[in-house]
Amino acid sequence: MAPKLVLYEIIASPPVRAVKMLAKALDLELELKTVDLFNKEQYKPEYMKINPTHTVPTLDDNGQIVWDSHAILIYLVDKYAKNDSMYPKDLVKRAIVNQFLFCDASIFDKFVGIVKPILYGNVKGLADWQKESLIDSFEAVERILEGKKFLTGNDVTIADISLVVTLSSANLVVPIDFKKFTKIAAWMKNMESLSYYEPNAVGLKVHAEILKKFIN
Ligand SMILES: N[C@@H](CCC(=O)N[C@@H](CS)C(=O)NCC(=O)O)C(=O)O
After folding, report:
1. Which family does it belong to (predicted)?
2. CATH domain 5-80 topology
């Protein structure tokens, strides 16, 4: 019997898009429950009970709650993937994937720190230091991708999924200079050609519409 996986989500959210990409890759069906962040539904006591950090995504796997996209990606591969290529069991290989997952978490946090006050506060636009800070992350990713098709080499892992959703949304706020960052450009093309990329494309469009109203 197929597992009953409920995902608390909002379509535009980058970390939600990562979980949806992986679910598609693993052929897992998700029952989606929208948490309307603009109406502060994430602060409802019943939601805060399952995710005290009031964020999406949150996964409910037949009563087992897991929140934070990175933790959810790890959980889904460990539990449901037919092989370990996306999150290797080998200690060293796994450490390298973890390294990039945590790297993504830092970049995403930077992105949220910039966008949240614009979307939910009264801040208008980005300061130069904020743009420079994201560009510094683009430079790091460009160095990481040197000589590699994906972050860890030839195999796509959950770290690539995590990072592509973050960078594709960061690109809406601080456009990535793809002529300069040629390795990021090639990697993004490789990611876009994956059969399970669609949830990022769909959510990214919605994210672009939302951000467009606030950032020009
Ligand atoms: N590290 C978390 C970040 C999740 C996150 O910040 N999600 C945003 C939406 S993109 C959110 O739910 N924000 C609502 C809030 O912080 O109250 C993850 O990877 O799941």
Report:
1. Belongs to the GST superfamily.
2. Glutaredoxin (3.40.30)
Q: What is the pLDDT of residue 23?
A: 98
Closest residue CA from atom 11 of ligand 1 = 55
pLDDT at res. 75: 98
Provide the token pair at 213: 């109203």
Closest atom of ligand 1 relative to the 72 alpha carbon:
20
**What is the Å distance from ligand 1's center to 114 Cα?**
13
| Confidence (pLDDT) at 186 | 98
5-80 and 91-214 share one fold: no
Cα distances (Å, whole numbers) of residue 101 to 39, 86, 96, 105, 107: 30, 12, 9, 6, 10
Region at 181 (left for phi over 0; alpha for psi -120 to 50; beta for the rest): beta
Give me the residue spans of the domains in the chain.
5-80, 91-214
As assigned by CATH, the class of the 91-214 domain is mainly alpha
In this prediction, residue 167 carries a pLDDT of 98
Average pLDDT along the chain, 216 residues, taken 10 residues at a time: 88 98 98 96 98 98 97 98 98 98 98 91 88 97 98 98 98 97 98 98 97 81
| Amino acid in position 121 | G
- Cα–Cα–Cα angle for 73, 33, 83, nearest 5°? 25
